[in-house]
Design a protein that fits this description.
Blueprint: H1 11-21, H2 25-30, H3 36-53, H4 63-70, H5 74-84
Helix pairs in contact: 3-5, 4-5
Length: 97
């Protein structure tokens, strides 16, 4: 519970992460919250962000702050990572496509 990656200090980020945690992972992966085209676009944007801005070098990075950089919700980013890369935030390793 004290890990900043899981529960960010920023209250807005913390609320965003907690709201995702309260959703059932099975329901999120079965439900399509963004179109296939948008998923591909967001995967590309995430790859480009990681390649050019290297936010992973920031030790305080978390799902909510990464989502802010992409200008999407943490829920959408979680969906992109889970369904687009078949990974979760903590095991995310972007492969440049």
């Amino acid at each position: 519970m004290k890990q900043k990656e899981i529960f960010p200090l920023n209250l807005k980020h913390r609320d965003d992460v907690i709201s995702i945690k309260n959703h059932s992972p099975q329901n999120i992966s079965k439900r399509k919250i963004i179109s296939s085209e948008k998923l591909l676009e967001l995967k590309h944007q995430l790859n480009q962000l990681m390649l050019h801005e290297e936010p992973y070098l920031n030790t305080d990075i978390n799902l909510a702050s990464l989502a802010e950089l992409l200008k999407i919700t943490p829920h959408q980013l979680s969906y992109v990572i889970n369904n687009g890369f078949n990974q979760n935030f903590f095991s995310l390793s972007i492969s440049i496509e």
